[in-house]
Design goal:
Elements lengths: L40 E2 L4 E2 L32 H14 L1
Antiparallel strand pairs: 1-2
Length: about 100
């Protein structure tokens, strides 16, 4: 599910497409073509995992990165593969 990094509003674009560089969230107005919405953005390091792209200073603002790939967050109440793995690890050694 592809959604806004700021408010969580689901993006209603066609499957397999990316938001345009000037496209904003219909609910909160946040830029959608930004690092914080990209699949390559790492929350822990607050940076891009790609080694071939330029460093973007304002990660919450629109940019012209050609490697942008609109990623999705886990749905509310859902879990990510990482949290599932951490949960299983904890069960194995703490339980």
């Amino acid at each position: 599910m592809k959604q806004c990094h700021q408010c969580g509003e689901i993006w209603d674009g066609s499957p397999g497409t990316q938001p345009g560089r000037n496209e904003t969230c219909v609910k909160c107005g946040a830029d959608l073509h930004s690092c914080l919405n990209c699949r390559l953005f790492d929350q822990r390091s607050y940076g891009c995992t790609s080694r071939t792209t330029e460093v973007i200073k304002e990660r919450e603002r629109r940019n012209y990165c050609e490697e942008f790939d609109f990623g999705g967050k886990p749905a509310a109440g859902g879990s990510s593969p990482k949290s599932d793995m951490e949960s299983k690890w904890g069960d194995m050694f703490n339980g």
